[in-house]
Write a structure and sequence with these properties.
Shape: elongated
Helix content: 55-70%
Largest sheet: 2 strands, antiparallel
Radius of gyration: 39 Å
Distance between the termini: 80 Å
Structural class: mainly alpha
Number of strands: 2
CATH class of one domain: Mainly Alpha
Strand order of the largest sheet: 1-2
Order of helices and strands: EEHHHHHH
CATH topology of one domain: Helix Hairpins
Strand content: under 5%
Number of helices: 6
Length: 242
């Protein structure tokens, strides 16, 4: 261990130990970079937040409707495939009977065997197509459930905000426990937990701006002779006075 001289006094050092870098002049202390929650600025006004929730809900609703239409279409395709498989089974049965009835040296028997082979290949393909459609329908069905869950979660947060001390997380857990899915069911649970917030009286509407005569306005001002910028400033001044 050695000793270094400095203006602040002697500083003991250990051989091989890196010296601590000096603090940068004018730097911001680490503690000063931390902002308390009280100092955090509000990112959105309530009106903006409501608008964002509305957009999210509308988007989820549209996605859910599109997916539901896809599922309906897939169900129709599956039904068509099942009908084709049934018809194919009838064809195979007829061809099998025809092959058995024809003599082994009959030229028709050879053609019947070829048709039977084609029909069986078609059956395998139809079953494969139906299976693929069922898998796709199942996947879209899961996505529809996710969209429904998203809509329900947005509704839960909207409803919780309508009550004093409303807790969206708690409301969501209870809705899942009691399998509450509709808006009415969600609100019934919220009603048993909290009290509705008092309705806020709407702000009085701003009286309409007095129309200009186009010639002179208060104090003999000739509004028609003002520049566009001056007209804007004068209009703002009059709005504030009302």
């Amino acid at each position: 261990m050695g000793v270094e001289e400095s203006k602040a006094g002697t500083i003991p050092t250990v051989e091989g130990q890196a010296k601590a870098p000096p603090a940068a002049k004018g730097g911001t202390p680490e503690s000063a970079s931390k902002v308390s929650p009280e100092e955090t600025q509000k990112l959105y006004t309530q009106k903006e937040a409501d608008a964002l929730v509305h957009v999210a809900k509308s988007e989820a609703g549209r996605e859910k409707k599109v997916l539901e239409d896809v599922v309906v279409n897939l169900k129709a395709q599956i039904q068509t495939k099942e009908s084709d498989i049934e018809e194919n089974a009838t064809d195979i049965e007829k061809l099998q009977t025809k092959v058995e009835d024809l003599a082994s040296n009959d030229p028709e028997r050879f053609n019947a065997i070829k048709e039977l082979r084609v029909a069986r290949d078609e059956r395998r393909q139809l079953k494969a197509d139906r299976s693929a459609l069922e898998d796709e329908k199942r996947e879209h069905g899961e996505t529809v459930k996710l969209a429904q869950s998203t809509l329900r979660e947005i509704t839960v947060f909207e409803v919780a905000a309508e009550y004093e001390s409303g807790d969206a997380v708690k409301l969501k857990e209870l809705c899942e426990t009691f399998e509450a899915k509709s808006d009415e069911q969600i609100r019934k649970i919220a009603d048993t937990l909290w009290t509705k917030k008092a309705a806020v009286s709407p702000k009085p509407a701003t009286p309409p701006l007095k129309p200009y005569s186009g010639i002179t306005e208060g104090g003999g001002l000739d509004f028609s002779k003002l520049t566009p910028d001056e007209k804007i400033k004068e209009s703002l001044r009059r709005i504030r006075k009302q």
